[in-house]
Amino acid sequence: MDKISDKVINRLTQYHSILGDCIKKGTTTVTSSYMAALLKVDDSQVRKDVSMLNNTGKSRVGYNAFQLKETIEKTLGFKNPKNALIIGAGNLGSALAKYNDFESYGLNVKALFDVDKNKIGSEINTKPVLDIEKLPEFLKKTNIEIAILTVPADFAQDIADYAVECKIKYIWNFSPTVLSVPIDVEVWNENLMGNFLQFSYKISR
Amino acid sequence: MDKISDKVINRLTQYHSILGDCIKKGTTTVTSSYMAALLKVDDSQVRKDVSMLNNTGKSRVGYNAFQLKETIEKTLGFKNPKNALIIGAGNLGSALAKYNDFESYGLNVKALFDVDKNKIGSEINTKPVLDIEKLPEFLKKTNIEIAILTVPADFAQDIADYAVECKIKYIWNFSPTVLSVPIDVEVWNENLMGNFLQFSYKISR
Fold this sequence. Notes:
Oligomer: homodimer
Number of helices of chain A: 9
Strand content of chain A: 15-25%
CATH architecture of the largest domain in chain A: 3-Layer(aba) Sandwich
């Protein structure tokens, strides 16, 4: 398949989200017109986008939701692999390092970094745990785009500053604090508290 | 006040986090532009969000940090605590059990459950790790509303069925799979893959 344009990638991620929601509701077949209506695009646009993918699960009544979702995941994952490292080899960092699904989405965790001498030198899911002091050296050798922060909240800002100094441009922040970073650095906050509160708010009504 | 959207809830929890950090540092007044800059959103967005709340502590120089923090807590119902248990005492389950912030947000994790005999009988952050077979008995004694699922994807459906049998009504699912549950059971999927896809999409541009 040829290069996918940003606009198409944008729509694919939205189809992906809709398919996930449909599957959640127990719907196994989804039509192009259903997705088109939700995204306020033309039906033919959805069909054109999907026809570019190597998707097989199409019947007269619509797309197989599971297959199309998987096709989109594969398409996006294989097209844009990104290297990442995890800072903080505690429980959460270890859990993410063991999350093999990330790779099929194009997120390759190359190493973990920590300050704990007992952890440094070990491996988690075949990924080495390295001394945080070795971060600049490691980044010179390896093309890393994303730092995944799983350190305690009190250390998160210092570690983020350090990562930014080491030329990290994207931070996926799992620490429960809001980071202050330069304008050219992107932070994606994985706000578990916020997610819980959305859930909590929903179920208390 | 009308129903609050997920996006607003998410921002409110981030304002809450910023306010907490400010108070820790001894700052008592916080401006909308300060919070807006940290979250890289527009100033007017912050003012609009806050104006929806029944918040009183606003002066010409900014919001009273204590009052706004408390207003957010009241709005989102942190003061109506909910009891939860974690099923799966692996890395992710342990990380969540150690997440002390949950308690200040009204989520009290009472115990963890696992099948691993090496884990059963231990404690994680003062919370006992119990045999999954003891779940029905435990639920009879303790008022638990939420089961947090952190088991591998392959076991998630069986464990969810079991939790539902044990009268659990709310499941916060961290397993990367879509669960099928009866209509009266609410599942909140913590979709890390989907979150990554959005981030990945954003930074690919």
